[in-house]
Every structure is written in C-alpha cells, then in structure tokens.
Amino acid sequence: MSGGRLPAPGGAGQPGSAAADDFWSAYGRVSDDFYRGELTTADRERWESRRLTAVLRHVTGRSPFYRRHLAGVDVEAVTPANLAELPFTTKDDLRREMHGVLSGPLHEARIYYETTGTTGAATPCPRGEKDIATSNIAVRESWRRMLAARFGDRMPVVGLMGPSELYAFGDVFTAVAAELGACHVKIWPESPRVGFRKALRLIEELDVEVLVCAPALCLSLAKAALHYGYDLAELPVKLFLTLGEICTPQFADNVATLWPQAVVRPTLYGSQEALCIATGADSGALHLALPNYLVELIDPDTGTVLGDTGEGELVLTMLVDGIKPLIRYRTGDLVRIVPAEAGAPLPGPRIQVVGRVADRIPLGDVTLQPAELEAAVLEGVSGCLGYQVVIDRQPDGGDAVTVRMDLLPGAGPERGRIGEAVAARLRERTGAHARIVVDTDLDPVTHTGSFVSWKAARVVDNRSGPDRAALTARQVAHRYAITT
C-alpha cells in the first residue's frame, strides 16, 4: 500500500478470522488503487456495493439502535442506488441512544473519544483498529504528499496545537507523524501548562516549521508573537495545517500577510462521530476519502436527495464495519462537492465546507453561508489579526452590520482603505447598512470557533437573544481568557 501496509486487526470483533483477513486484503487493494489514481469506476462501485451490504449486516446484527431503526429492511436488497429509501441517522439519535448506537461492546474498541458536548450531550465515539487504520491512511497520504511538495526529502518538525484527552486530534496526528518519521511536539497554547509565551519559545527553539491548529489560532498566535516582541518574519513557521472550522481562501490569504514565510492549507475535514471525511492537498483543496464513505447531498430543509455533487447538506454512510459505523448520517454541514480535476495532487472529489446548516445568516436582502460572509469580510484584506461581525436592527426595520477588525498597527491610511472596501462590499452583497470599526481588543469569543461553531465565535446577532451555541461560546471564551 502507498506508504506502507495497513496493520492486520489484533482483537476488534473477531481477530484473525477469515472475514477479517479478507477485509484487510480487499481494503488494501482498493486503497492502493485509489491513492495511485488507478481505481476504476467499476471497481469502486463493486467495493461500495459489497461494503454497504457488509456494514448493514454488521449494524443490524450488533447495534441495538440500528436493529430497531432499520427493522423490516431487507439489508441484502439495499444498494447505493436505493440507499435513499433508508431513514436518516441524526445527531438527536446519537444523543438519545448514546452507547446503543455502537456495533459491539466497548471493550472491542481500542480507544475511547466523545464529542465536545458544547451544544448537546457529549456522545461516545470509540474507535476500533479498523476505524483507526482506515481513517488515518487518508491523513497519512495527504501529509506525505503535502510535506514532500513543501520540504522535499526532509521531514520538518511538526507542532500539534490541539487537545488530545477525549478528542482524536492528538492521537491521529501523533500516529501519522510517527509513520512518516517526522518529529512532533504538542504545544497547545490554550493549555494552562503551556500558554502562548512558552509555545512561541518552543516554536523558535525547536525550529518548528509546521503547525497543525484551528484557523483562529493562526491569528491568535500572530497577535501573541507581536505582544511578546517576536518578528513574525523571523519565526520558522512555513506551513499552517488547519482544521476544526471553516478556512476560506480569503482567510488563508490574510494569514500570509501576517506570517511572511507561511502558507495556510486545510489539512482535514471530519468529526469525532464520522472520523476523517476529507484531507487536504497542497493546492488548498480538500478531497473526500472515498473508500470509506458513500456520500449524498440533501436539501437541508426538506431532506430531498440532490445527488453526490453540487451543494447541500452532507449525508454519510460509512463503509468500514468498525465499532460505530453510521448509516445516512446527517452531518449538519453545508458543503460543495465537485469532481477532482485531472492531475490533482490527491484523488477523490473536492469538497468545500461552507458552514453549518444552523449557521446560515439572514442579512439584509440575502441569506449568507458562513464562508460567504467571511469571504466578504476578508477579501483583499491584509494584516487582520481578528474580526467579529455584529448585526443590529435599525429603527426602520433594516439590518445594520458592524465589522470589528483588529488590524496590524502602523498601517496608517491603509486602515481606512481596508475599512471602506469591506463596508462597500457588504452593502453591495447584502443591502444592509455596514461600517467598520478598528478594535485592538476583540471579544475573546472569537477564539472559540473550533470548540463551538464559527457563527457563535464570529457573529453577534443582536436582532434576537443568544442561542445555546452563543451562550456556550461565552463560557468557553471565559475559560480561554483565564488560561491565556
């Protein structure tokens, strides 16, 4: 297999069984062909059909929830073509059923994770050996190619800026760095045992060239570096690999104006529940890990299936019969999917995450997706250390938008030009009144996007009271302010 063989299972389910051996052999062939760009349409369809049947047998035989949820379904008759006849699995299902969703007892897993629980009950997300190996290979292939494109034959030191405890972040990237032979250091600046000052010292002393973090941390780290007297052009960081919230091209372009040596590339789109859905290429695009999923797009309001390309809410059916495979799982994410162009650095359709379904924002004459609002705010902007959008209702009933922006000091007249351009763009695209305020002391809630939601972190909507996500973000921001 590209970059090394997959490990054989050592205990999940039925270790050493003929069925397990058959899975690893078949998965290895399909994955090899996929990452070499040699997987034919016929072979992919044959793999998807066989794996769908295997997973449906698995969940109806071993998961109490799916035994009820799919009662009366002839799983042998379900194919990718008629998959839409099955009911959705929702986040509410996962919160209600908890361990009842699992396809097997917990001791068959290899590691336990759970969701953050910021907007609802934290749900169990254990992973078995099949889950870990088949999900991590997508990350490994992404990193192998991207690091080779940036650093050639040598491996850079990688800084992991994220929690590990009950979340997969630290374990996934630790494992992948080890497989690739890259030294890594865990320097999460929000940790009270690390903090920004120590993180920056370690980045400089250890010559850390790659940082894996949420997009907001690219800005927070720059602001902290300036506070502690660092020259951003002298720090060794050359590549930010981002995950956890939307990262638009406009955001990435702005980060490059703060960090002269660095570029931003999305590295992973996934979740605790659904594992690694897509990984990043050096082009800046995310590509779906096709051997592991069947993908559908639906209308988020009606549930109508829209196909597997275009724009809609992402629905996933997992093709690996691990400890918690999900069937027709509504992710709640709005995405755009298009076929990969010829010669793309990674195989699989390209996917762009435009925001959460719940984060759509009616503003003026339009409804904007999070990515559209961020693009409007940051298009052509340089030197922005952070921003927040405040929406108010005007006396005449119209909407007024105030964008608070933390800009690099010393820009002089450039600040006015940036502000005028942003305000004019927002007025043109939304019809709302818009103004820009330069504010070097932004609300700490802007750092909470990867913990709660992009909207809760970036938008204060005074037209209505704060929702549960906004209140949770406030609590997270309070802890952030204390620890940093």
Kindly describe this structure:
With 484 residues, the chain is α/β, with parallel strands linked by helices. The chain has 13 helices and 19 strands. The protein folds into 2 domains: 1-354, Rossmann fold, CATH 3.40.50; 357-483, GMP Synthetase, Chain A, domain 3. The chain is globular. Residues 1-5 and 8-15 have low confidence and may be disordered.
Number of strands: 19
Average pLDDT works out at 90
Q: Examine the secondary-structure arrangement and name the CATH architecture of the largest domain.
A: 3-Layer(aba) Sandwich
Number of domains: 2
Tell me the strand order in the biggest sheet.
6-7-8-13-12-11-9-10
> What's the overall geometry?
globular
Keywords:
484 residues, eight-stranded antiparallel sheet, Rossmann fold, alpha/beta, five-stranded parallel sheet, GMP Synthetase, Chain A, domain 3, 35% helix
Task: Summarize the entry for a quick read.
With 484 residues, the protein is an alpha/beta fold. It has 13 helices and 19 strands.
